[in-house]
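Researcher: Next entry in the queue.
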Amino acid sequence: MTKGGHTILSKKEIIARFSEALVKANTELDPSIREHLEHYQGPFSEILKENERIARENRLPLCQDTGLVECFCSLGHRVVLEEPLQQTLETAVGQTYRAYPFRDSTVDEPLFRRTPLKDNVPPMVHLFQTEGNVLEIRFLIKGGGSENLSRYFALEPSAGVDEVENKVIELVKEKGAMSCPPLHIGIGIGGSAEKSFVNAKYALTYRLEARNPHPDYAQLEERLFRKLNDLSIGFQGLGIGPTVLSVHTVYEPTHIATLPLAIAVDCYLNRKGAVRYED
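Model: Structure for this entry, 279 residues:
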């Protein structure tokens, strides 16, 4: 509904559409990724394909690790909400994970008792203020195996592109087989330490074929894509098929004395989605 030049979004609408997107991402493989799976003929190929088919046809999870939900929310300055967006998204995640056979993967505090929560809340919510009358929510459903490959490097500002490439290649070469490859690689460069990590995660929400509009970063993505696939880690670390399906970068202005580099990794399922709300 629009009133006085503002778009008023109901809690009910946000929950309904976001919940449906969560179910779809947990149970249906993105068609562009399914195409790679269909071409794979190596070990366990038929089991992987059958698992994907059963999940899609029966709305069952593609993986038993139904992840931590991470949201990247672009909120237009003319959008009016009924309540804080964090609260609405927590309700959506809780309702969805209780209604479907999705594993609860969160604990209430991380260090001492690690008591399991019962509905996979809270989602990790990053909020970006933008112009306009639109709310867009991009999200990842991030499993623990790939999340454990996250890395941050405080590089010297004099470090060159070769050092950035080497950090990514060394990480995938050493640990890539542990995160259900072929992998998706998100790289955040610049900004601050925390901003580079947010950007690295955000890069994982891009389409497989997308390229950074800056030609230098686009070439960096293409070089890394080739070099990482030359590692021949393959599907599930078995040496056959691609090692990575995508490499994406996001860069930010940064301090003259810093060069933040963050690397985020996702498994081959790359469970993601986007919901756009506008009047």
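Model: The longest strand covers residues 244-254.
Researcher: Noted, moving on.
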